[in-house]
Request: fold
Amino acid sequence: MPKHLYSGNEAVARGAYEAGVKVCSAYPGTPSTEIFESLPQYEPALYCEWAPNEKVALEVAYGASIANVRSMCAMKHVGLNVAADPMFTAAYNGVGAGFVIITADDPDMHSSQNEQDNRRYAEFAKIPMLEPSDSLECQAFIKEAFEISERFDVPVIFRMTTRLCHSKSLIELHEPIEIESKPYSRNASKFVSTPANARRNHASLEKKLADLEAFSNASPLNQEIDNPGATIGVISSSVAFLYAQEAFGDKASYLKLGLTFPLPMDRIRQFASRFERVIVIEELEPFMETAIRAAGIECEGKAMTGKIYELNPQLVEQRVLGIQKPYVACPIKLPARAPSLCPGCPHRGFFYALSQNADYVICGDIGCYTLGCAPPLNAMDSVVCMGGGFTLAHGMAKAFEMLGDKRHKVFGVLGDSTFFHSGLTGASEIIYNSSSVIPCILDNRITGMTGQQDNPGTGRNLMGGSAPVLDIEAILRSMGYDKVLVVDPWKLDEVKAAIKEALDHEGHCALIAKRPCLLIKGAPRTARRFAVDTQVCKACRKCLKLGCGAISMKEGKSSIDPVLCGGCSLCAQTCPFGAIKEA
Amino acid sequence: MTSMLIVGVGGQGAILFSKILTEALVEKGYDVKMSEVHGMAQRGGSVSTQVRFGKKVLSPIIGLGEADILVSLEEMESARYCSYLKPGAIAIINRYRLLPGSLADGKESYPEGIVDFMSAHFETHLVEAAAAAQALGNSRCMNLVLLGAMSNLEAFKDLDWETVIRRSVPQRLLDLNLKAFEAGRALPW
Ligand SMILES: Cc1ncc(C[n+]2csc(CCOP(=O)(O)OP(=O)(O)O)c2C)c(N)n1
Ligand code: SF4
Ligand code: SF4
Reply:
């Protein structure tokens, strides 16, 4: 059979299709995004969508499960915080057809604001959890996940990590199975979570977990790999297992766990009893180690491997076996290549305008526009989580009110996708509990940061169809913003005037900076390019304050790389001497 | 097993490079793993992909002192990742400089001495990919020039590059990319 290179994400999508999944809902987030980007090819066998946020995605998938079709949702690790509420209760209730919750964690924070270990959620919410190690297991385990969900009447957490999601390895393709759906009939005592039902459901969940532990002890998802004569026993899971296998080689025997909640404690006990040293190799939290110790089984682990950032084979070798491979470090100081807003990015002008006044407090949010925090713009006071921009701003404004501080003016800034994700509630908070915050939506007509996904404002859906466009301006007006100013962020005067008008306004005013992201496929792009007249340029460096990657100092004068220039004209608008003109 | 690092600056085509390479290796019957880190959509950041191939590959990623071959699409990036190389490993470096944003203000200049440092520690091959790509009228195909140059290495001698390039590149860019690959292959080594 031919073999294909699939990333872990692509393999999960393929496996779910082969398992007969019918309804799939997700909100994008690195490193999970490509799971859903590779689902539309399996249409019409399945339905898939971008939900406005993770809570919605989980609920949609759970609803489909209640209606007796196999369903799944996917999100990055922090997305599960947003979706946690329905998840905990879904665990009590159980499922209709198989229901799988995919969480993609990001050890090392390659593209995240924290590196929380979502394995803790499995234990906390009492939900069984599978952890594959490579693409082949992603494809196979997702099928097991649906089986386990149906057999034990529970949701299943499918936990991935960045290196699994974004690593490609070989898989074989299989045909999808045909699943016959049970006809739907109401089962209120199961799915209506009243206290009386929940009490009963909690008791039955505990019983299911006991059965699941017995299953875990017998399951081939957990397997032993014996090396004769080995004195070390390694217990590991996920991609960390591959690191361990490479570091220890045949010096160790392995208990490789694919079903890591509930842990197969009898198997672990039996395995551990055969070795002088038992070492747990896992990234981030001592999730397995703590449980194994608590069961009275001696083992080592985190004291050597550490619980921050990610591992790799060399780190395991170095930290556990004390072997340091020789390498050469570069003695030359290398300047950083930090990410920055694209040249021509619509976000730049808005932050440039806000950066001009030190009394402006800017509560930012998560998206490309987070980069407004970077030098030289330095236009941000806080970024915490999606949706936090408006609400942190409201809190700060209330604090300034209490302190009698009239100097600071507070702006809450977030993007269009973030607005639909969780900015709507903050926008209503500002009206309901009236504060002076000016909510600003940087509407670049796409979900930019995660690589161009559609959202309720773009007019398209994940399957490529057209969709209604939710009108942000109309939404804000209906909430009670009596002034909503829509500006073009490529026009600095317009932006500055709007900020002034908003600050002077008596009632509630919101700002929308509207212009498409330059990377949107097929979006209209300007062909104009700008250039510096070196005769006129006085090297005042004012244009450099924009932080545009196309502009740099060359031979003492400002210079624009015509290949990189995005044609926004902001530099021409800021040059006090008129040295920058259309080329 | 052979471990490789392909590095450069966002937008230079390190991912396409790795895609063609890995598919050619799969065709040849190797076990292959490739790992890329992506997430930030913007251009201009430092990017790296890792490729490992052999009879059986375990981990998709490596740590310090573990890579056999480095391909760098930009000069300074080679030094940024040099600690991942085994001493004496092969380094293929594009003699092409992209000014990082942090140097835009002109207060400091592009670091000198990178090529000397790399040559002192590694079996370094310098490739003038920019000139070759410009001669073809499109600087965006530097990645394929480097791939062509790299294909001269013993480890890649008899891979079927052309079939894979034909599969991986959009029709309108195919001719350019095939020419770029051939130009790289013909460069003095
Ligand atoms: C709870 C949560 N879900 C998902 C993400 C991943 N994520 C980061 S930014 C972003 C999209 C931001 O899009 P938008 O608000 O439109 O701003 P843009 O990037 O287009 O400027 C997403 C999905 C996250 N950080 N947190
Ligand atoms: S991807 Fe779009 S929104 Fe993000 S920085 Fe680039 S132009 Fe701006
Ligand atoms: S060089 Fe000037 S016009 Fe071109 S993208 Fe940068 S700021 Fe805009």
About this structure: Chain B touches chain A through 57 residues (CB under 8 Å).
